[in-house]
Amino acid sequence: MATRDHSIENLIERLNRLPGVGPKTAERLAFHLLRVAADEALGLARAIELARQAVKTCSRCFQLDACDPCAICADATRDQGMLLVVEDPREVARFEDVGYRGLYHVLQGRLSQLEGIRPEDLTTGALVARVAGGAFTEVCLATNPDLEGEGTARVLAEQLAPLGVRVTRLARGLPAGSSIAQVSSSILADAIEGRRPLS
Ligand SMILES: [Zn+2]
């Protein structure tokens, strides 16, 4: 079997580490990047570099922004008593679009026995500390309405229970197994509006 240059193998291997990119796609992308104009391929590398330099993780809510604390955490006009807990920074934009104006906490994932993701792999410790030290009147656990999202919400609710804060979940209008990234804005708006206590 012909051996390929190590640099090609390295590129394929790195692309293969990206979420949703299997070995075949990684190989196809790698050869695409080697075939297109150098400007095009290096432009991608530069774009990654620039975004990485410009974007920071907020030390309070763990979402991505150009500043730390992020623009949302720094905005005193928002409801400081309301905390919405989401899995992924991308979901913040969805809730912003449907008019939510409280604060956020990004877990950076969700608990998964299958993938070996434990509470300490997420920002759950920071969440508990934040709620314990803050003046939140409500914490809404807006993890996805699927098996792992529901499981994550249950574990978080147990951890938050001793703090005496009102813990809620998005309304059941969200189709089971769906994801917050995909549901329509009207369903998401209803889900926030109709959030229910989590017992
Ligand atoms: Zn923030």
Q: What keyword list fits this structure?
A:
199 residues, two-stranded antiparallel ribbon, 2 domains, elongated, Helicase, Ruva Protein, domain 3, alpha/beta, Dna Topoisomerase Vi A Subunit, Chain: A, domain 2
Task: Give a quick precis of the structure.
The protein is of the alpha/beta class.
Describe the structure.
Strands 4-3-5-6-7 form a 5-stranded mixed sheet. The model has no long low-confidence stretch (mean pLDDT 92). It is elongated. It folds into 2 domains: 6-54, RecR Domain 1 (Helicase, Ruva Protein, domain 3, Orthogonal Bundle); 58-197, 3-Layer(aba) Sandwich (Dna Topoisomerase Vi A Subunit, Chain: A, domain 2). The chain starts with 5 loop residues before the first helix and ends with a strand. The longest helix has 17 residues, at 38-54. Helix 1 (6-16) packs across helix 2. Helix content is 42%, strand content 12%. Helix 4 (89-97) links the parallel strand 3 (82-86) and strand 4. It has helices at residues 6-16, 23-35, 38-54, 89-97, 124-133, 147-160, 185-193, and strands spanning 56-57, 64-65, 82-86, 103-106, 138-141, 166-169, 196-197. It is α/β, with parallel strands linked by helices and 199 residues long. It is built from 7 helices and 7 strands; from the N terminus they run H-H-H-E-E-E-H-E-H-E-H-E-H-E. The structure holds zinc ion. Zinc ion (ZN) binds at residues 58, 60-61, 63, 69-70, 72-73.
